[in-house]
Write a structure and sequence with these properties.
306 residues, 27% strand, alpha+beta, globular, 6 helices, 24% helix
């Protein structure tokens, strides 16, 4: 009986130790082993120090895995850093591309490491600012966190964000700038199919990363008046054509993106668009040809007489 009880106790202790060990090591397991992953979209982020610790690390990226680029990943496990909740997208495509380039520069510079310690986690910001926001040129070893690395990217592009930032504040602060849209549907947070460079992936209170590479096209969100004078919406891919009718008429003009045909006629005023010319497509129908100068958040034209 004594042997049996000892054996049972040993088994219980063994199982308990194995469970504790598994829970301890689980966060360090490769995300791809328990999540969906994609090589078509790449993200950059600051993750942990040289020994896997969050604080008390030596300055700089000691093993090339403190601040790095990897395949986009989504984990179904709630405790994972890859269990994204939101995607924050910059409305200005040029700024979005610049943000992605800044994050790639952070990940490529081995003088930049990871540390959550308060005295260390803003040293990247200090170095970047002192270096005129030339991140690639930073030669002094410094530290950052996932959120503070993104703060450096934003400040480098003129978007003022605290140098000591936290993921719990990111969604609110970014939306309040007026330059970001927030997405939380599954097609953005659980799939890479709509992600573009500069997108910020967020799990509040836990982790944040930025898309640095993607084959997905940027899109323009259009709001215009249809032929009945009612508000309509369209989303088009960059450098693609779309026909819409911004005028309160069923027979006057349409807008065609990226056309090079130039004919005489009046020019409806459309925000963020450059007028190229008119094209006659029928006895009483004309196409107004425009090219987007920047992203078009709203298109609203007055009725024009041709």
């Amino acid at each position: 009986m004594y042997v049996t009880k000892c054996s049972l106790l040993n088994r219980i202790l063994s199982i308990t130790l194995m469970t504790l060990l598994a829970l301890t090591c689980f966060p360090a397991l490769p995300a791809v082993s328990y999540a969906t992953s994609s090589s078509s979209v790449r993200i950059g982020h600051a993750v942990y120090g040289e020994s896997g610790s969050l604080k008390g690390n030596k300055a700089g990226d000691r093993r090339g895995r403190e601040v790095f680029v990897e395949n986009w990943t989504y984990s179904v496990l709630g405790m994972s850093r890859y269990h994204w909740k939101y995607v924050l997208r910059c409305k200005d495509h040029d700024v979005a591309r610049a943000l992605a380039a800044d994050m790639k520069a952070i990940c490529a510079n081995d003088n930049i490491g990871y540390d959550q310690r308060k005295s260390d986690n803003t040293t990247l910001y200090n170095e970047a600012k002192a270096n005129g926001w030339n991140i690639s040129g930073i030669s002094n070893k410094c530290e950052t966190t996932c959120s503070n690395a993104i703060s450096v990217c934003l400040n480098a592009e003129g978007i003022k964000i605290s140098k000591s930032w936290h993921t719990s504040r990111m969604r609110r602060d970014l939306v309040n700038t007026g330059m970001f849209e927030c997405y939380k549907s599954d097609k953005y947070v659980k799939s890479p199919s709509k992600l573009v460079p500069g997108d910020i992936l967020l799990k509040p209170g836990h982790h944040a990363a930025m898309v640095v590479e993607s084959d997905n096209p940027f899109t323009y969100k259009l709001t215009y008046l249809n032929h009945e004078g009612k508000t309509a919406h369209a989303r088009i891919e960059e450098n693609k054509d779309v026909l819409i009718n911004p005028n309160n008429s069923s027979e006057i003009s349409y807008i065609k993106m990226d056309s090079d045909k130039n004919l005489a006629g009046e020019v409806p005023s459309l925000r963020n668009y450059k007028f190229i010319g008119w094209k006659k497509t029928g006895s009483r129908t004309f196409i107004a040809c425009y090219k987007a100068e920047h992203q078009a958040l709203k298109i609203r034209s007055k009725k024009v007489r041709i």
